[in-house]
Write a structure and sequence with these properties.
The complex is a heterodimer. Chain A is mainly α. Chain A has helices at residues 13-16, 23-43, 46-72, 80-98, 102-121, 129-149, 177-200, 202-212, 214-219, 224-251, 261-274, 279-303, 309-330, 335-348; strands spanning 162-163, 168-169, 172-173, 253-254. In chain A, strand 2 and strand 3 form a beta hairpin. In chain A, helix 3 packs across helix 11 (261-274), helix 4 (80-98) packs across helix 5 and helix 4 (80-98) runs parallel beside helix 6. Chain A is globular and about 70 Å long. Chain B is built from 15 helices and 14 strands. In chain B, strands 5, 6, 7, 8, 9, 12, 13 and 14 form an 8-stranded mixed β-sheet that branches. Classes of the chains: A mainly alpha, B alpha/beta.
Amino acid sequence: MFYREAGQFKTSYQSDQAVFPIFQDRVFIALWLLLAFVAVPLLANEYLFRAIFIPVIIMALAAIGLNLLVGYCGQVSLGTGAFMAVGAYAAYNFMIRADLNPLICFLLGGLSATCVGVLFGIPSLRIKGFYLAVATLALQFFTDWTFSRIDWFTNYTPSGSIAVQPVEVFGFAFDSPLKKYFLCLFVLVIFTVIAKNIVRGRIGRSWMATRDMDVAAEIIGIRPIYAKLSAFAVSSFYIGVAGALWAYIHLGSWEPLAFDINVSFSVLFMVIIGGLGSIVGGMLGAAFITLLPLLLNQLPVWLGFSMSTAMVSHLEFMIFGALIIFFLAVEPLGLARLWQLAKEKLRLWPFPH
Amino acid sequence: MKHSLLFKAGILSLMLFIYGCGQDSSTSSTESAGESNTAASSTSGEPVAIDENSHFVPVLSYRTGPYAPNGIGVANGFVDYLKVINARDGGINGVKIAFEECETGYSTARSIECYERLKTKGPTGATVFNPMSTGATFAITEKAPVDKVPLITMGYGRSESRNGSVFPWNFPIYGTYWTAADVLVNHVADINGGLDKLKDKKIVLVYHDSPFGKEPIPLLEKRAEMHGFNLIKIPVTHPGVEQKSAWITVRKEQPDYVFLWGWGVMNSTAIKEAAGVRYPREQMYGIWWAGSEPDVRPAGDAAKGYQAVSMISSGKTRVHDDIMSYLYDKGNGTGEVEYVGQVLYNVGMLNAALVVEAIRTAQGKYGDKPMTGEQVRWGIENLNITQEDIDALGLTGYMYPVQLACSDHEGKQAARLHRWNGNTWEYSTDWIQADNTLLDPMVQTQADAYAAEKGLQTQACES
């Protein structure tokens, strides 16, 4: 009834090719932005900012980055934790050795991850699928080793753990949770807009062609070396920036273990559960994987059950695992697909025939 | 329509599941409510509700995951002591202690979430945090000064944080890793008849590859350089169940001593592997986190003769009797009764005792009402526990006199060693003093480096 495009005529190519051609979608996105930029800052407390919104936003950025590679270009990667680590350690070293503006350091962190990404993307030209996943896994172990064994990267701190400097841009310190939230949110919005436009354009189409059938893509004139390596480059840039933000904005102090193989897995799960080849899927997946355990952990207390923390924790693991299987069984294409189905149903509602 | 059917089935099973859990726990909660009724108005070990007249003590614990066997003991001791203070003394000067546990699974990310969740609870916010993990301590150290909550990191955390002018909110009371490492070096020197006899000896450090395990390295390297012994460092990846290659190296090198810097399942695995390569356990020394029952029991007879630095050993004293009579006899104990009196249980208890005494000290200045984090910080810094206090608390032999100051947030740079005889831990040495003339400059250098990197304004300690 409300969600119907009848009567919305497109009179120019521009309006036909808009990101959101349907008026209701534009309203919906505007409402979301309003919620994120106005309602949340007004209503949320410190716990929500520091433990919920900031981690979800940063993880959403990482998931979008990985989705560009896995979902759009079809190159399976288990090196997300490694790219995040490269971004974080590079940002730290630029900050401490070159004393640059933190925001520039974050971007340089992303660029460093890009270099590593392109380098470790080269095997993708010869190997595919599981074999490529194993090759990126090697990168994960390599960075784990590098950052815990080569003391230069951690500025010779005795314990190998890094404590970050305050993030200050032109005398403006991002010290309160609210300011940090806005910083992350701006980064996410800008990067999302860029990602959406990349995947709609020539580069994105060449990625998708490569994903769907690389031989056919080559025959119609897409050079796999450019398509695959550009996917690795853009994806690692996103993930590198996410890693720098994760380290500087969320953690504040970290050890190599903060970017271990578990991070790679959980971001990959975010992408799979959120929906491969969908920008919104990255965000939904990040929210799902980050928030559900916390929710399950606190639910018994809210409902008034008195259980031991160990019991709650065990239940959390069991229900979390069961829900992942459940969602994948119901909709293997992820939460983004569920969202799309809901929209299609809405177009016909309340008269389905 | 297959989807909706599956969906309904899923929802139904979920509801059934939740209902099942609810039933299970609701019966148990009615039981405990009944108990508190029979105990009537007399003080019982029931959890105190967080209300206007209570101190809130957050408890970060890990009762699940690879470190659970060790984490459970610490958590039980900590919580039992808080309970017995409520039950026996009616709180601290009449103000009860409310607490809430949060499960971290020894994960740093989860610890931060727990910290954020608990820091504003209670009438005055969290009084003091005990992160119970070195990784979490590093992370929370960055947040505590902003939130004005002190950290007690008894026997773990940053070694340089004993410097109160750079780390006003950190209190590594009763020992840092540098202290422990120096105690061990001094001990092996004593055996050999002096530090100069350590020349050309070979010492292997088998360590947990994390900030916790790496912490002692600067001190050991310094000592190695000073006395000419050979230090070989072997990292073990978290959680430490795979150590074959480490112990093959030990067999190849045949070191004079092995220092074990492990936690959780890593310790018992190390002892078993040592037995596997026939490395004598008498020449193995653990950190205090590698010297408790769960570390040696799984290794069986192989662990006999193994020694570890000890903050506190196993055994029972008057306060344990109180815990039995006030809590366990009434069914209000936190865990299984076997834990009471084990090494890690006593460690948790000692840690809680420090929290309680810090709050008591703060109350001496600010009055008998719930304390804020800032007030408790003053209380910890001005902590002065005498032998008489300890006797009055019933902790004789399980707590040591300690006096803190801005310049010394550690309070005690000495420790004893204890040995596993196959059944229990027993002290094998007298107090061994760490060398402060060596530690002080190192702490100062490292703390200055930290302050410089962070651009901190440090305040020099008065006096």
